[in-house]
TrEMBL record:
Residues 94-309 form the ABC transmembrane type-1 domain. The chain crosses the membrane at residues 93-120, 132-156, 186-204, 248-269, 289-309. The keyword Repeat does not apply. GO terms for biological process: transmembrane transport. It is found in: Cell membrane. Keywords: Membrane, Transmembrane, Transmembrane helix, Transport. Pfam families: BPD_transp_1 (PF00528). It comes from Trichloromonas acetexigens. It is a multi-pass membrane protein. This is ABC transporter permease. Belongs to the binding-protein-dependent transport system permease family. One of its GO terms (cellular component) is plasma membrane.
Length: 320
């Protein structure tokens, strides 16, 4: 198994190396710059000499070797717009994105898995047909549309939940009150993402479960007189779980890109919203840092999912 693992590790190492090269090169190829975004076209008019001086000041002439050395030391540069270290800004925003996206993926995966198993077990029933139709319809609704509808209903019309932010500013809450305030702000963006991800998990689990319903080992389990729930989950759902594990890794790897719309819509202070602001301001050090951090996190998570998949399905590790 160890010998078969080396090609996988080598591929991930090459991918990480390519990401480092691209993260160093791409900002120099993008149109626009920090000076254009902040000073040109505004109330303050700069002459050509001052503009050239500012561009030289904010430009990066760092070599690739110096770039790698700085990354290794934990120096990811400073945000041009905010004047703070990039790594400090990422560290402040990442927990919010992890809370939002992690909760959304966990709830949508668990809910889609259980619902998919139960509905597949009742194949051909009105419940199964209605659930498939509803989930297929829901899967086609974009996050922006569902988020706007939830925002209009629960935040603006009913005023049950806050419309933006992650916490009530200057409230001085602590303990249980702080936690409840956090959950109230989390509710709408979380529900938006769960509605976006749950249908796909449900449909995939149902399809995988239908493939194993007629398997001989299920008939054997039934013949042994095992309880239906044990046949359904211990012998059936366990084998339908593998495609969902792969989907979980792929969906979670889109953590930042998936958060762009929702975090911007609800003004949630995560990496997605921070990236949108950095790009709008041509804050290339910050944008580059977020993209690099997200990409390396994706690689690490994808590797973890692949190793987990090998453990769940020994045929993969043995090349069967």
């Amino acid at each position: 198994m160890r010998g078969k693992l080396w090609p996988t590790l080598t591929a991930y190492a090459l991918a990480a190396s390519l990401l480092l090269v691209l993260s160093h090169a791409l900002p120099r190829l993008l149109p626009g710059d920090f000076v254009s975004a902040h000073w040109q076209g505004g109330e303050v008019v700069l002459d050509a000499d001052r503009t050239a001086d500012l561009r030289e000041r904010f430009a990066s002439a760092e070599s690739f070797g110096g770039y790698l050395s700085a990354l290794a030391r934990g120096d990811w540069g400073r945000s041009l717009a905010l004047g703070k270290p990039v790594l400090e800004l990422i560290a402040a925003a990442f927990p919010w994105t992890l809370l939002l996206m992690g909760s959304a993926h966990l709830l949508s995966t668990l809910g889609g898995f259980i619902a998919g198993v139960e509905v597949a077990w009742r194949w051909g029933s009105p419940l199964e047909k209605g659930s498939v139709a509803a989930m297929s319809l829901l899967e086609g609704v974009p996050e922006l549309v569902s988020g706007l509808l939830l925002l209009l209903l629960f935040a603006l019309r009913l005023e049950w939940l806050p419309a933006s932010g992650a916490q009530t500013a200057y409230a001085g809450l602590a303990g249980t009150d702080w936690l409840l305030d956090l959950l109230r702000h989390l509710a709408l963006p979380l529900l938006t993402l769960v509605l976006a991800y749950l249908p796909g998990n449900f449909l995939l689990t149902r399809a995988s479960m239908l493939l194993v319903l007629t398997a001989p080992y299920l008939e054997t389990a039934r013949a042994k007189g095992l309880p239906p729930w044990r046949v359904r989950y211990r012998h059936g759902a366990r084998n339908a779980l593998l495609p969902l594990v792969t989907r979980f890794g792929l969906r979670f790897s889109l953590m930042v890109t998936g958060a762009l719309v929702v975090e911007t819509l609800f003004a949630y202070p995560g990496l997605g919203r921070l990236l949108v602001e950095a790009v709008a301001q041509r804050d290339l050090p910050l944008a580059r840092g977020i993209i690099l951090f997200s990409s390396l996190s994706v690689l690490a998570l994808s590797l973890g999912v692949e190793l987990l998949y090998r453990r769940l399905d020994p045929r993969v590790s043995h090349g069967c």
